Structure formats: C-alpha cells, structure tokens
Amino acid sequence: MQKENYLGVDVTPYNYEEIITDLRERMKAGQQSTIIAVNPEKVMAAEKNEELRQLINSATYQIADGVGILLASKMKGGKISSRVTGVDMMDRLIRFAAEENHKVFLYGAKEEVVTAAKQKLEEKYPRLVISGYENGYEKDQDKIVKNINASEAELLFVAMGSPKQELWIRENMGKLNVKVFQGVGGSFDVFSG
Ligand code: UDP
C-alpha cells in the first residue's frame, strides 16, 4: 500500500470502503491491523517528537481525519480526496462486524459512557455482538487482557485519548487474539449520546 507522507507522517490514501476491503483480507490471513486517526495537530506534534512519529507510522492505517490533510494532499497531487474520521471509521467497522459476524470489545471512557455506547450501538445494529467492555479507568491490566481474550472479540476499540490509547495498543496487541485495533478518542462519548 502506497502511503502519502506529510512532514514525516504517513497517511493512508484509502476511503472507508477501501480500508474495509483491505482489512477483510488481512483478517482472513490472520494478520493484526491497527488504525490511527491523523489530523494536522498530530502531524505538527509528530514533527517535533520522533517517538510519536514512529508510533503513528507503525500503524497499519493512518486515516486522514482533518481537512488540513486533504488540502495538503491536493497541493501535492496526492490521492486523498475525502476525510476518513475516527468516529465514522468506527461506525463503518461496527457495521462490518455486525454483517460479517465478528465480535467486538469496547475499552475506554467512563463506565456509564461505555455502557451507554454499547447499548446505543446494539440498538443501531441488531445483529452486532459486543461480547465485552471495560471502562478506561480500570487499573488491573492483566484482568483487561484476560477479559478481551475471553470475549473472543476480533475488533477492539480503545477510547482513552491520543496517544495513550495507541501506546496501550502497541504494548498489549501481542498478548491479544484481536485482529483489528482502533484508537477512537472521544468516540464512545459520541455514540453514547
Ligand atoms: N479516558 C479514559 N481513560 C483515561 C483518560 C481518558 O478512558 O485514563 C477517556 C475519557 O473518559 C474520554 C476519552 O478517553 O471518553 C478522551 O477523549 P478525548 O476526546 O480527550 O480524546 P481525543 O479524541 O482528543 O484523542
């Protein structure tokens, strides 16, 4: 996959459907994939922070969540022509999970927010199976990893803000049987409302 690069930060020139198509193949091949949202603020921060830049560039997909990226792509003759937002990417992945029978785990946000998000998503997608959840303030990391694996979830959404959620994913993905990881920031708050 040919990435575009802005100030050292990679961006995947795929729309929602292209990411789903690519992910489906990676899941079939048993590969793990990570999705991180990139906006101009993150690009600016990563320009001065080598560790953050590596964290972003090591993801499978860096989605173009911000009009600034579209403008930069247009000026460079790139292919990125529409935004791929973190919250809409999560919604599209949830629909994919419901339609193709993949279990989902929600990790992050306050207890009342994550439970409300779970309920709203289950109402929106009746075939969806959210097989587990955990709030973002639970301290027992071993318990969280054990619960995620016991849930048999193939998609995991982590909502603890950036870069905390991406650091957590990087540290724990090797212990998890999950195939698709997305750091989603405040998205559970959006779905819960
Ligand atoms: N959060 C969490 N654990 C923490 C810190 C934050 O679960 O230790 C949650 C917080 O409750 C909120 C989300 O992370 O639901 C933060 O969203 P924010 O909009 O700040 O993230 P951004 O989209 O800006 O990265």
Automatic annotation (TrEMBL):
It comes from the Bacteria. Catalyzes the conversion of GlcNAc-PP-undecaprenol into ManNAc-GlcNAc-PP-undecaprenol, the first committed lipid intermediate in the de novo synthesis of teichoic acid. This is N-acetylglucosaminyldiphosphoundecaprenol N-acetyl-beta-D-mannosaminyltransferase. The chain holds residues 1 to 193 of 237 of the full protein. It is an enzyme of class 2 (transferase). One of its GO terms (biological process) is cell wall organization. Transmembrane segments: none annotated. Its EC number is 2.4.1.187. Keywords: Cell wall biogenesis/degradation, Glycosyltransferase, Teichoic acid biosynthesis, Transferase. Pathway: Cell wall biogenesis; teichoic acid biosynthesis. GO terms for molecular function: N-acetylglucosaminyldiphosphoundecaprenol N-acetyl-beta-D-mannosaminyltransferase activity. It comes from Mesobacillus subterraneus. The keyword Transport does not apply. It catalyses: UDP-N-acetyl-alpha-D-mannosamine + N-acetyl-alpha-D-glucosaminyl-di-trans,octa-cis-undecaprenyl diphosphate = N-acetyl-beta-D-mannosaminyl-(1->4)-N-acetyl-alpha-D-glucosaminyl di-trans,octa-cis-undecaprenyl diphosphate + UDP + H(+). Belongs to the glycosyltransferase 26 family. TagA/TarA subfamily.
